[in-house]
């Protein structure tokens, strides 16, 4: 199985699939940092504007900063909100965006944005490609004769996990580097140190965050391998996945996207920049259990399909 | 030795191989002849574990299966190399990879260049192996596959119409290399009149999914 894993990794690399995935990841991570830097400037401009409005209307900006913000949504159209205490509201947004630009936030910020938005697509496509490329070129039978179906599929599954982990590591590294550069640049124009959060940030759970991302890799990578093993072709499943993941709304409570949205909101704080879709009501523990059980099932499906299917003379 | 005992394969309700019993002798070259549709490729796929079958297939001391398939033929312990390597008729290769890289993919291991150099010039020169597979002709792809088979170190080599498209000088060189493999069981398949027939020391004839009586193992070419 180790030999098959190395072979799959080598093929991912030599076929330019992994290099392209890493390059796209680096571009996405860079774009995320640029967006974050723009958010800091925009939020700072908004806070300055609010200060001027407070001064023009004779209001006490400093006093409002000490009071909590209120947001009303009742009776308003979806997506609209009535904000009381704009001073504190704008300050909190600026403080959150400044905190998000800290290099120490890189891991958490990358995982919560990249890990739940882009990574599912990357992991699924890597799995689907690995599971179909041998068959597309008529070479599936060669690997089956050499390694047998169990080791072939297991090697493929492990390779997809390793490749996805490399993608995440690349995202984190580029993101951390970008944030350090962006923060240094922003510091020349803005007094970032003056915008510390006024309330303590909710406790972070790095292990839970990493665990959620590992589950994303296992689930979506496994789904790609299983789909490839069952369907045997790349294009149609890839298009359907894109439609499901990015076009269709979350369908029901037990849609896997809803599970991962629930998990994401449980382990990450979405107070700045990237915002994850609000899940339909489901207990995070149940969502995690469903995701884990489905991951195991998908692994079994891939093994079963490969063992049972007659590869024929592709 | 490859021993087939009552091997039957049915695909979509049609019996392709019907209780085939034969012995492919050890350390010799056997030619399995048969017309198109006679069941040669199906039988090879059964031997390779790619096709479900009833009956029994044994490679030396290892049993491929009985009734439960597909299963990989297990290594019988002799080193080096795997128990079985099949050189398929369609000569599949990754188009974007070189011949060298494709051989590594086919064998599933890194390939020391001196190992290739010791054998390659007789079948596939460096220029052929360095080119991307998409630039190779069908005959050249076949040569790459034959080279991979010879480098595999497998105890049992099966060439399914593997020499179709290989030119006469190439076939002569391949024949010389196969002759050197005195400790390998080799099974060739093809049609009557195939020049590869001359390489074999034993022949089998498959007709309508069964081995024709009187033409089984042991009958010299």
Any overview of this molecule?
In chain A, helix 5 crosses helix 7, helix 6 runs antiparallel to helix 7 (140-189) and helix 8 runs antiparallel to helix 10. Chain A has 314 residues and is mainly alpha-helical. Chain A is built from eleven helices and two strands; from the N terminus they run H-H-H-E-E-H-H-H-H-H-H-H-H. Chain A has one domain. Chain B is an alpha/beta fold. Chain B has one domain: Rossmann fold (3-Layer(aba) Sandwich). Chain B has helices at residues 40-48, 99-107, 113-117, 126-130, 138-151, 168-180, and strands spanning 2-11, 14-24, 29-34, 54-59, 62-66, 84-87, 156-160, 185-190, 202-207, 210-211. In chain B, the strands form two sheets. A six-stranded mixed β-sheet of chain B has the order 6-7-8-3-9-10, with helices on both faces. In chain B, a hairpin with a 2-residue loop joins strand 4 (54-59) and strand 5 (62-66). The longest helix of chain B is centred in the middle third of the chain and has 14 residues, at 138-151. Chain B is globular, with a radius of gyration of 17 Å. The two termini of chain B are 18 Å apart.
